[in-house]
Amino acid sequence: xxxxxxxxxxxxxxxxxxxxxxxxxxxxxxxxxxxxxxxxxxxxxxxxxxxxxxxxxxxxxxxxxxxxxxxxxxxxxxxxxxxxxxxxxxxxxxxxxxxxxxxxxxxxxxxxxxxxxxxxxxxxxxxxxxxxxxxxxxxxxxxxxxxxxxxxxxxxxxxxxxxxxxxxxxxxxxxxxxxxxxxxxxxxxxxxxxxxxxxxxxxxxxxxxxxxxxxxxxxxxxxxxxxxxxxxxxxxxxxxxxxxxxxxxxxxxxxxxxxxxxxxxxxxxxxxxxxxxxxxxxxxxxxxxxxxxxxxxxx
Amino acid sequence: xxxxxxxxxxxxxxxxxxxxxxxxxxxxxxxxxxxxxxxxxxxxxxxxxxxxxxxxxxxxxxxxxxxxxxxxxxxxxxxxxxxxxxxxxxxxxxxxxxxxxxxxxxxxxxxxxxxxxxxxxxxxxxxxxxxxxxxxxxxxxxxxxxxxxxxxxxxxxxxxxxxxxxxxxxxxxxxxxxxxxxxxxxxxxxxxxxxxxxxxxxxxxxxxxxxxxxxxxxxxxxxxxxxxxxxxxxxxxxxxxxxxxxxxxxxxxxxxxxxxxxxxxxxxxxxxxxxxxxxxxxxxxxxxxxxxxxxxxxxxxxxxxxxxxxxxxxxxxxxxxxxxxxxxxxxxxxxxxxxxxxxxxxxxxxxxxxxxxxxxxxxxxxxxxxxxxxxxxxxxxxxxxxxxxxxxxxxxxxxxxxxxxxxxxxxxxxxx
Amino acid sequence: xxxxxxxxxxxxxxxxxxxxxxxxxxxxxxxxxxxxxxxxxxxxxxxxxxxxxxxxxxxxxxxxxxxxxxxxxxxxxxxxxxxxxxxxxxxxxxxxxxxxxxxxxxxxxxxxxxxxxxxxxxxxxxxxxxxxxxxxxxxxxxxxxxxxxxxxxxxxxxxxxxxxxxxxxxxxxxxxxxxxxxxxxxxxxxxxxxxxxxxxxxxxxxxxxxxxxxxxxxxxxxxxxxxxxxxxxxxxxxxxxxxxxxxxxxxxxxxxxxxxxxxxxxxxxxxxxxxxxxxx
Lengths: 299, 416, 280
Hints:
The structure holds three protein chains of three kinds.
Chain A (H helix, E strand, L loop, with lengths): L2 H43 L2 E4 L4 E4 L3 H9 L1 H32 L4 H15 L2 H11 L6 H8 L11 H29 L3 H9 L4 H29 L3 H6 L11 H10 L4 H29 L1
Antiparallel strand pairs in A: 1-2
Helix pairs in contact in A: 1-12, 2-3, 2-12, 3-7, 3-9, 4-7, 7-9, 8-9, 9-12, 11-12
Chain B lengths: L1 H20 L5 E6 L4 H14 L7 E6 L5 H10 L6 E5 L3 H6 L7 H6 L10 H4 L3 E2 L2 E2 L2 E7 L1 E5 H7 L4 H7 L4 H11 L7 E4 L10 H11 L5 E2 L2 E2 L4 H15 L18 E6 L14 E5 L10 E9 L6 H11 L2 H7 L8 H5 L1 H4 L7 H13 L1 E2 L6 H15 L6 H12 L4
Parallel strand pairs in B: 1-2, 1-3, 8-11, 13-14
Antiparallel strand pairs in B: 3-13, 4-5, 6-13, 7-11, 7-12, 9-10
Helix pairs in contact in B: 10-11, 17-18
Chain C lengths: L2 H34 L5 H4 L11 H9 L2 H32 L5 H11 L8 H10 L7 H9 L1 H16 L3 H8 L4 H12 L1 H17 L2 H6 L8 H6 L10 H33 L4
Helix pairs in contact in C: 1-14, 3-14, 4-7, 4-8, 4-11, 5-8, 7-8, 8-11, 9-10, 11-14
């Protein structure tokens, strides 16, 4: 009975399906070739011992993982460094971004100026930023310590003392990236209707209460996005490390992304580096899943 | 408009891609770590000479910064884009030879007229031969020397290092004393700068090995690490004190460029003379100081190699033979002390560089004669990686040198 | 104290606080400019920001030292190309994932989301061998293909999908009534409406490409093919020591045009982020 109706609606559906696949196919094809394929390959590579220089490889099973997880204390050191880096960078970055956004969200004259200032490092090449800061953080002739000595502080050798090196890299990285998060927060704040906060103010709520009850919940989606971007950004940090510390001193700033590069392309341990890449993959996949759960819980 | 623009840009992208990969069959790519105009002019001159017999061969010199050299080279080779020829340092030689990355050029050398392969001593060729194969020809056998700022020495009324070297009083202790005297914090002048200012990173071995050897130590022999020996520790202590007790050596993370007059002393090789062309101070060179174990001249060696995967292996080998013939070695001697005995012993060598007096060149020649080559190993990249964090641990005021070096040796021992 | 003056004082305190906070953001630029005009020996030996002697020649020396103009162009055209292609492909895919119902779309979305946060370090080693096999080593292709089809392209697709989801359907339905094809609706109706999202995603993508460092480091050898970040890191003398004055002058040249563009467009940039609704 419904064949007559079903017929054309099926073709309509089919047509929509065809255009759907056509629309996604360019990016999907590229994604398969340049992401999914390599991802499968890296799992395979991680089971080989492979010397980049002599280009010889043979199967070793889980040996690379065993090596990383049990025999090599550098790996754990690197993992801890990566977590310390993320734990230092993410809260600092997000708090600063939120604070700046709250202070600068309204379009008054000064706000535009300050926004420009805080966003400027974002559009500056990361390499340029790292280079300049490396100079500023030199032990005696660096501008930072010169400024500190004026107020009587004898500054440390920032990039050459293990703890300070980590702190310095985090700090310069925050300066470089906080502007984007600030703009995202400002954008979100500006899309919150005025009436909400005005109404609350009329009911006698103070600034903190307005923030906690209205602004903060409304910012939640943005906060989640920013957190994701920042966490991932902190796990893939490469250029700052490469240019400012090279992973030193004493491996104090050797983070996973840099360690992969070094093992793979500097010490020719392609197989071992692949195993590290797989570990990074698992780590981030876990974060992605966690984020999805958080998001579902919010709704 | 925008689509046209995008099309154009795609064309540009594709074009630049094809230009890059379309290697002319007659172009030889030659990787070097020098960017000095004086050096490159000289090298281009040699390439120009080669064209007289091979009119359609051009040579393109690719500069890779020293710190990244081996890494970038390996990347290019692994990426299927190997250079035809290149420079290679002594410490990478065993790894490259063992991996089969270098081409055996012995046939070409023997087929080249008047090449006189026997002119290279067996000891100079040690790292570059395996069985009957020849995998590189040293073009530079360059002793480490002390460069000093004569203007500063004269102003302070100190006896200069080369005078002391003739007296026999030129020791590391003396160098330490001089550096402390000449350090002038107000003028931003340091006493001593490590090799190219990289003595804590890329050149930490170049920095410490000469001192360690002067104190009777060494890096390793026959698969045993000696870097934790009392001699080595004493040597490192001397340098450590220069940084943290005297405050005279440029510390890690600080800039004190000898060549712009910001340091009184440095240790480096003769090729750096090209950086002093327009120095606004007087300078001089002296041999490395002696230590308790007497003189310990140390030589850095670099060779010209042809790569096994190169696309034009035969022409590359011919160019290698041409570049290292007696005439061109004499030409390169201006910056790169030769490994050819005939050139080294000839008088022309002493006056090969107008910026260096024959007396100074004699110091170079002595250094080559008495010097031992820097340590090298088949696993050098891995050794370097293992040792790096331990070396880093030395650079703090209250570092326990003995403990650090013991740990370093434990770390690299399995690799030796 | 009146409420007015109290408010004024708070305002002044805020401004002083912001100024103090602004120092680490602004000072590096000032120092960079000062260093760019100093001679090499001067960069560190004098603490003064005003050069004892102005070396304009630093700026011309850059070009003698490296094909800097070419490298500048490389960075620029790659970033423009990556941005253009990403916007086109990502908006199309994002549109389909938001609007078109087709079996497998949920799977595609899940696949893309799982890659959303994957840094390029995860796949850089296999991609190295892939590019070698494709004969794309030492070309700009990897610098175009990897951002486009890696996490950046995925991120762009995802953001565009979120934007289209929030867009009212009615406008497009009118387009369909007029007899437009699916592609026509996307291209002529949906795309013009998504300008703010396009510009927000475009800015992020452009900056991503402009900052790219690992890929050029691994895939590009020839100095003529270098991009700006590589070129800036490559100002070293004969023996690998940085030529600070040239490096700083080049850095200044790399940074200043971007700053000017940003200052001119800053209001639109913030606005586009606000309107694009870049959120989860």
